[in-house]
Amino acid sequence: MTHPVLIRRDSALTLAANGLPVLPLSADKRPFGNCPDCRDNRCGGRPNMKTPGPCQCPRPCHGWAAATTDPAVLSSDPWTAAWHRAGAVAYHPGGAGVTVLDLDDADAIAWARENLPATTTVATTRGEHWIYRGAMQSANGVRPGVDVKSSMSYARWLGRGTGTITELPPAVRALVVKAPAAVRRVRRTVSAPAGGGQCPHRSPVFLERGIAMAEQRITDAASAVHATVYRTFLAVLSAHGRCGCLTEAHIGRLFTAAQSKGETPRHCTDAWANARTALGM
Questions:
Q1: Is the pTM for the entire model greater than 0.70?
Q2: CA distance 99 to 281
Q3: N vs C: which end of the chain shows fewer Cβ within 10 Å?
């Protein structure tokens, strides 16, 4: 009889050989938490597991960011120890260039069949995974019983499923587009520094160019989005936070750019507050 550890590891190696970044899940079907060397951000990685940072830990730390296609890593001693404690194999859909629509119940499945193009379908314990070709932002609870798993997320490997995979449709991308109302709620909780609404040390053109460049920097971030947002807020506040030229509209533009990359309103508010605190404002 083949040992379950070997089954899981061999399955992971096969998937990795086909370009699927994989990682072990613990017995409760969650990624392994950071190891003692990486706990509390000691390694430089992000404790919220959104990005691996500069961490070079050989163990499967940092959640989805630990996913790999490297057979040497998957077969290394630290990972073998993890396979002994693993309950399942997972993969990073975004890293494989796909998006998983996680449908939790019959109502969600019925909605998908009525509104979305058919694609590869994998049965789950409670519903189905619909897999589309193309990566996108991940989000939970986009509809009742519907989660989107792609970039910065993981999904359990439950088999290849049935049906031919099709291109990611605009209707799925639209599920995670945030309504403008979310930005308006943030604006009521964040105040612009007091001032006359003009930039006294240069010109309004300088301010407009700075805000536009900040928006573009956030939009262009391919990784480390949370850190990029914070550094961008810090730069804007450093240049304009004390002269009083920033308005609620400027802040709203920055928050909208951050939310388009997956940041929540709370993350935006916290990053703005932390940047002001760092600058003594």
A1: no
A2: 42
A3: N
Q: Which amino acid is at 211?
A: I
Q: In sequence order, what are the beta bridge partners of 123?
A: 128
Cross-strand partners of 148: 101, 139
From residue 232, alpha-carbon distances to 210, 217, 226 in Å are 10, 7, 10
* pLDDT per residue of the chain (281 residues) written in tens, 0 to 9: 345 676 788 999 999 999 999 999 998 888 988 888 887 767 766 545 555 556 778 889 888 888 999 999 999 999 999 999 999 999 999 999 999 999 999 999 999 999 999 999 999 999 999 999 999 989 888 899 999 999 889 999 999 999 999 999 999 998 887 544 333 333 434 555 544 445 555 566 777 888 888 888 888 887 778 888 888 888 888 877 777 677 888 888 888 888 888 888 878 888 888 888 777 76
